[in-house]
Design a protein that fits this description.
Elements: H1 25-28, H2 36-45, E1 53-57, H3 64-75, E2 80-85, H4 94-113, H5 128-141, E3 147-152, H6 159-176, E4 186-192, H7 194-200, E5 210-214, H8 220-227, H9 241-249, H10 253-266, H11 273-286, H12 288-298, H13 301-311, H14 324-332, E6 335-336, E7 342-343, H15 346-358, H16 372-377, H17 380-393, H18 405-416, E8 421-427, E9 434-440, H19 447-450, E10 456-463, H20 469-482, E11 485-493
Parallel strand pairs: 1-4, 1-5, 2-3, 3-4, 10-11
Antiparallel strand pairs: 6-7, 8-9, 9-10
The structure holds adenosine-5'-triphosphate and magnesium ion.
Length: 499
């Protein structure tokens, strides 16, 4: 099936409105709404010295990744930026997280400085102390005055990995404030929702050194920019249509885009009130995002009761982020931070009204909309979408892997999804070459199987039309022998009849 992925390129053939994955300015320029939060983050990131880290706090599908990618694009000329999606590390321990981040940093810097600068050799990182030492040496070795790490999907790590990893990041911050510390070069920018909130709020939280940025929904003008895209499709846009759409979605980025996508799919000649209503009704029946909000509430009875009071009993509740239940409702995406609290948008209000009516609260826990096993998987589609996007970025026009940073990022992310592997930067000081090497954690799930390939597994790329198969195999075998690798993974592309 020709399902479009996050990597889907070119607007010409596919649908105009894009509802999955982050938007990219190069291909989605016309749809991309400029957000005030972007300017605020830019300003903070460009201050002469790093006096705080930055946390982008916003519920699901409200444009966090889009914002981080845009921020990176704008900051790249003045700083070295490394974007790391932590969701591939869902099954990993803290040590694997340190190694993965170190790998991405080395890969990025090697591409940026070439062989002109000698990067520190990295022994496999075992602990928080090793990781700090690595960061210190790297910052000292490179000439760049600022190194920006953009960490997306902070909530993906396990509680143990998260604890260890973010406490170490906190130490980077604290030590960076000391005199003459090279760690002062680092600026961390995080994005996430409920979990990031817990990491940044309160005196004992490791990331309470962050300036918090909350993403606001689009205003009517922003929604108009998006809705006007219909004129390129030959669809009449009545003057009141953008306002009508905004009234339903409240300017929620994904909901707005989805409503437009459904209207596009339906193939209307004009965006009439009835057409918009019908699309909204369809979303109430089957939209993932709405479904997700309800699901989050099902897991949280206290939040659910409070929301019920706000919605059905019309209780006037003053908004405060110091109230943990309201803060959680805001991060789930159910309410907007107004005085008094309001439902985030009319679509949610309608969906929840129906939900509360269907499940009278006094009957105990309502039946889950999703069985527990499904919940465990936490959106595998989204993860595969991200991996596909990385894969796409690693290929050239003829569909062959290009050696270099993009391929390294893809390989690292792909193998990081295996709990027993940790990828570390195997950098050879003499050749300046970086290899993707996997060490094996015997104690992780599947560890006893993989352990037979210790000390390490090597990952290589090749295009099957480059040279004869014999020569390719000989080259790879030599490489594996040099590393004492007991297993070699080859990510191959292409291949004609001779391959
Ligand atoms: N700046 C923007 N302009 C227009 N639409 C946007 C913008 N940002 C996000 N969107 C819409 O929201 C969708 C989700 O965006 P994005 O993936 O950046 O959000 P997210 O918060 O990172 O989501 P997730 O929680 O799934 O990681 C996009 O596919 C797009 O439809
Ligand atoms: Mg995202």
């Amino acid at each position: 099936p020709s399902r479009r992925t996050a990597a889907g390129s070119g607007r010409a053939d596919g649908p105009r409105f894009k509802t999955r994955g982050p938007l990219q300015s190069a291909v989605d320029g016309e749809l991309l709404v400029d957000r005030p939060a972007l300017r605020r983050a830019l300003r903070l990131a460009q201050q002469p010295s790093v006096t705080q880290y930055i946390a982008i706090l916003s519920p699901r599908q409200t444009g966090k990744t889009t914002l981080l990618l845009r921020l990176m694009e704008l900051l790249q000329p003045v700083a070295t930026c490394v974007f790391i999606d932590l969701s591939v590390l869902r099954a990993q321990d803290a040590r694997a997280c340190y190694r993965f981040v170190a790998f991405q940093l080395v890969s990025e810097f090697r591409a940026a400085v070439g062989s002109a600068v000698r990067l520190p050799e990295v022994p496999p990182i075992e602990s928080s102390v090793d990781f700090l030492e690595f960061l210190r040496e790297l910052a000292e070795a490179v000439p760049m005055p600022r190194i920006i790490l953009l960490l997306d999907e902070v909530g993906a790590l396990t509680p143990e990995a998260s604890d260890s990893f973010f406490n170490t990041v906190r130490t980077v911050f604290t030590q960076g404030r000391g005199l003459n510390s090279h760690l002062a070069k680092y600026l961390f920018i995080f994005s996430g929702a409920v979990d990031l909130y817990a990491l940044t709020f309160g005196t004992n939280s490791p990331l309470n050194v962050c300036e918090k940025i909350y993403l606001n929904d689009f205003d009517v003008e922003d929604v108009t920019t998006i809705v006007e895209q219909f004129t390129h499709l030959g669809v009449t846009v009545p003057a009141e249509a953008p306002r009508a759409i905004h009234a339903l979605t409240g300017g929620h980025p994904y909901l707005t885009m989805r409503l437009c996508a459904l209207l596009e799919e339906a193939g209307h000649k004009a965006l009439t009130r009835q057409a918009i209503e019908a699309a909204a009704e369809q979303m109430l029946v089957e939209d993932d995002n709405i479904h997700h909000v309800i699901h989050e509430l099902e897991r949280r009875p206290i939040e659910r009761r409070r929301l019920r009071a706000i919605l059905l009993e019309e209780r006037q509740v003053p908004f405060s982020r110091n109230d943990p239940v309201l803060a959680s409702l805001e991060m789930i995406g159910a309410i907007r931070p107004t005085q008094p609290c309001q439902l985030r948008n009319r679509l949610y209000a309608r969906a929840l009204r129906r939900y509360f009516r269907a499940h009278a609260e006094n009957t105990g826990t309502p039946p889950a909309v999703m069985p527990a096993e499904v919940e465990q998987l936490e959106d595998p589609d989204a993860l595969y979408g991200r991996l596909l996007a990385l894969r796409h970025a690693a290929m050239d026009a003829r569909g062959a892997y290009r050696p270099g940073r993009e391929w390294e990022a893809f390989a690292a992310a792909l193998f990081a999804t295996v709990p027993a592997f940790s990828v570390y930067p195997d950098l050879h000081a003499d050749t300046g070459q970086l290899d993707v090497a996997l060490t094996i954690n015997r104690d992780a799930p599947g560890g006893t199987l993989w352990a037979m390939y210790q000390p390490l597994i090597l990952v290589e790329q090749c295009h099957l039309e480059d040279g004869t198969p014999e020569r390719t195999i000989a080259r790879l075998a030599t490489k594996a022998a040099e590393h004492r690798a007991r297993l070699l993974f080859v990510l191959a592309t292409g291949g004609g009849p001779e391959a």
